[in-house]
Every structure is written in C-alpha cells, then in structure tokens.
Specification:
The protein has 245 residues and is an alpha/beta fold. It is 29% helix and 18% strand.
Length: 245
C-alpha cells in the first residue's frame, strides 16, 4: 500500500499513529512490542511526535524493545549515529527501560559488530528467525535503504541476519534484506523532492534490486506500507497502488 501525504509533518503524524497502533496490538497479543528504527532525518519528526502527548501516554513503553536496522561505525554519542538521533528525539523522553534498547555497537569494527549484533538477536528471539512487529525504513536518493547500498556485497547475503558494509565511509553494519523483509509490518518513510527519482524507479521501474536495493525488501502480502510526502511523489504520472490522500 502507498499513501501520499501533503508534507513531512503529515507523514510524521501518520507514522507515529501507526507506531502506536502496532505497539498496542502487539502488546495486547504477546505482551511485547519489537520495533526496528530507521536512521536519517526523515524519521526524526515521527520520533519527536511519539515523545509528546498524546502518543507518549498511549504506549506501554515498559514492554517495548527497540532495535536498529543499521548503524554507522561511530561512537553512539557521535552526531552521525542513528542511535543518538533516536535517543535525542524519542528515547530520552519516554519511560523505556535502558535494557530494552539494543543499539549496534561498533567499537571492534564492522565485522565483529555485525557478528555481535546477530548473536544478540539470536539470544533475544531464540532459534527461529527474528520477526519484528514493526520495521521503519528510509529511502536514499540513490535507492538504498538501511545500509543496503546499490551493488554492495551485503545485498547478496542470504544466510546472515546482520552484515558489515565496508564499502561505506565510515563503515556500517546493517540488517540483511531478508531479515528486514520478514517483519509483520514494514513501513518506508520517504520525504523530499531529492527522493523522487529513486522512489519512482523503486515503485515503477524494472525489478533491479542491485541498482535499487529498496526493491529487495519484499514482505508478505499486506505487510508493506509506503508513507511518502508530496515532494517525494512529485513525478507527474500516478503509479498503480498509490493513495494520494
């Protein structure tokens, strides 16, 4: 499903409302909500909205576990860190237990960090592959999502859940496309005219996930939602499946 919202504020409002609904649903079913947060600037407005009333009071934060889809290999307090962005915008402002935060730590380098994060996921989820309740993802102007970049070796990974990305500067660690696409709900948050070409190619171009890695995220029917603003959807022709609300 694809929703086109008027602007980033409307997108953030819709994403925060969805977060609340999915959290309440998961906690009612299983007593726990497992969410993967995205990096970049587009989700910041969503996180800030979740940190304020009425969203803040609508979530039982003591039952929330937070993971990250990818991270730059920088200290967690570095301005480039996805963890720091989420902490400043959201996590410092809600009563979530510190042990429920699962950042990707890169002190020993990307390869060791990827192995350590996969081991953490295996401890948390047990023998079966992780199934997150909600995954937030972004889209880069080059078509990348998480740290799955065009033509990167990480795109070929079919067995590991977490992969090092040494081609990037700084190096990164990312969840694999298979892991991200296995969630109960995957939501892309895309804003800005600079994303329009990549969005159009991802939605309507030939299936070429090496060139447009976001195409590789393929959850089951009814599990994928795109929330995009009008600027990102500024290509002239409608694409099948769009809901221009």
């Amino acid at each position: 499903m694809r929703w086109v919202l008027p602007d980033l504020e409307a997108l953030s409002r819709a994403a925060a409302a969805l977060f609340v609904r999915r959290a309440r649903h998961a906690i009612a079913r299983r007593g726990i909500f497992r969410v993967v947060l995205a990096g970049g600037q587009t989700p910041r407005g969503t996180y800030e909205r979740l940190a304020r009333s009425p969203c803040r009071e609508a979530v039982d934060w003591a039952r929330v576990h937070v993971f990250w889809g990818d991270e730059r290999c920088v200290p967690l307090d570095d301005p480039r860190s996805n963890f720091r962005t989420a902490r400043e915008a959201l996590l410092d402002h809600v009563p979530i237990p510190p042990e429920h935060l699962h950042p990707i730590r890169c002190e020993e380098g990307p390869t060791a960090a990827a192995a350590r994060y996969e081991a953490e996921l295996r401890r948390f989820f047990g023998d079966g592959p992780p199934v997150f309740d909600l995954v937030f993802l972004g889209l880069g102007a080059d078509g990348h999502t998480a740290s799955l970049f065009p033509f990167a070796r990480a795109l070929a990974e079919g067995e590991r859940w977490v992969v090092e990305v040494t081609e990037a500067d700084p190096p990164r660690v990312t969840m694999s496309a298979t892991l991200l696409g296995g969630a109960e709900r995957v939501v892309f948050l895309v804003a800005g005219a600079s994303k329009a070409a990549a969005l159009r190619a991802t939605w309507a171009g030939p299936f070429d996930p090496w060139r447009w890695p976001a195409q590789r995220i393929r959850p089951g029917p009814g599990r994928l939602l795109w929330l995009v603003d009008a600027a990102a959807a500024s290509f002239p022709d409608p694409v099948p499946g769009e809901d221009r609300t």
